[in-house]
Amino acid sequence: MSSRERVLGRVRRALADVPRDGTPYEEAVARDYRTEHGDRSVERTVDLLAENLADYRALVHRCARAELPALIARLLAGRGAESVLVPPGLDAGWLAQTEVRRVEDRAESTAAELDRVDSVVTGCAVAIAETGTIVLDGSPDQGRRRITLVPDHHICVVRVPEQVVPSVPLALPRLDPLRPLTWISGPSATSDIELDRVEGVHGPRVLEVVLVD
User: Fold this and answer.
1) Which domains does the chain have, with CATH numbers?
2) pTM here?
3) Closest CA to 47 of 157, 135, 166
4) What is the pLDDT of residues 88-105, one digit of tens each?
5) How far apart are CA 192 and CA 82, in angstroms?
6) Tens of pLDDT along 4-15?
7) Does the structure show a pLDDT above 70 at 184?
8) Are 173 and 35 in contact (CB under 8 A)?
């Protein structure tokens, strides 16, 4: 008998005298709580997202759609990037004004190969204003999870206002729980017992979020 079977057996024995409840899971708990705090306009919600992203030490930029290629080119140049990882479904126009060498998102790429890439540019699934969180779900414009965790510099494009929601409860219905979800609140960081902050330990050292109007 495996350890798993032993644990499940103990759970079954513990529940043996518990009456069966035919209530569907989604109805078992009342979910009549508030789904967001306050009554904000779309503009104020986007402003809150920008404030909270900056509070997490992400670098936030705002531009019109037509200005996006020039801005991405400027951000890559500002980091001195010589290579950029490109998800397969990324809009080619976003990189139209940069000559930085493109690197494809390939299943066979090793961690060492990805670590040699300077930057990565992706879209996102949704952005949450109240928590300053960007969620990636592995869609074609975002690529595999690892390409946003290994390179040191991540440029993430958020389409405003359609990809911005006020709160986590309003974000969840937009996400497929079967997809590889990555929740990002600022650049990767950790601190020890002395509260010495170290960035880039388990993700990009620099996160730049572009809010495209």
Assistant:
1) 41-212 (3.40.50.10420)
2) 0.83
3) 166
4) 999 999 999 999 999 999
5) 33
6) 999 999 998 988
7) yes
8) no
